[in-house]
């Protein structure tokens, strides 16, 4: 059974994969003398025109498991700490 924490990571990855892809392409271009992209939107248009939707979501094979696992542990720890602190707060009163 899938954990809601992992599902949150997958939902996050669907949104952030294109953003990370654009960021990496824009940062990589900074090292070159000839700039291929004028900005983020131009980069998005050119990737979509050249490769299609696959180009926008390139790298998803590694990003989806990474986000799913990291969100699972992050949210589990967050909820665990919140329960612990709430219990301590109740015990003091």
Describe, in plain words, how this protein is organized in 3D.
The chain has helices at 4-29, 40-50, 53-56, 60-92. The protein starts with a helix and ends with a helix. It is elongated. The mean pLDDT is 85. The chain has 93 residues and is mainly α. The chain has four helices and no strands. It has one domain (4-92). Helix 1 (4-29) packs across helix 4 (60-92).
Describe the structure concisely for a colleague.
Helix content is 80%, strand content 0%. It contains 4 helices and no strands. It has helices at residues 4-29, 40-50, 53-56, 60-92.
Q: Give the ordered list of helices and strands.
A: HHHH
Number of E strands: 0
Computed Rg:
19 Å
Kindly state the percentage of residues in helix.
Answer: over 70%
Strand % is under 5%
The unreliable regions are: none
For the termini, the CA-CA separation is 38 Å
Tell me the overall shape: elongated
Number of helices: 4
Briefly note the structural class of the backbone.
mainly alpha
Mean pLDDT: 85
How is the biggest beta sheet arranged? none
How many domain units? 1
Helix and strand layout, with pairings?
Blueprint: H1 4-29, H2 40-50, H3 53-56, H4 60-92
Search tags:
93 residues, single chain, 4 helices, mainly alpha
């Amino acid at each position: 059974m899938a954990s809601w924490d992992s599902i949150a990571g997958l939902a996050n990855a669907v949104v952030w994969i294109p953003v990370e892809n654009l960021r990496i392409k824009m940062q990589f271009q900074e090292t070159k003398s000839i700039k291929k992209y004028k900005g983020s939107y131009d980069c998005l248009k050119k990737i979509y025109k050249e490769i299609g939707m696959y180009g926008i979501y390139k790298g998803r094979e590694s990003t989806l498991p990474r986000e799913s696992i990291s969100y699972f542990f992050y949210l589990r720890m967050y909820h665990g700490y919140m329960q612990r602190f709430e219990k301590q707060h109740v015990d003091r009163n």
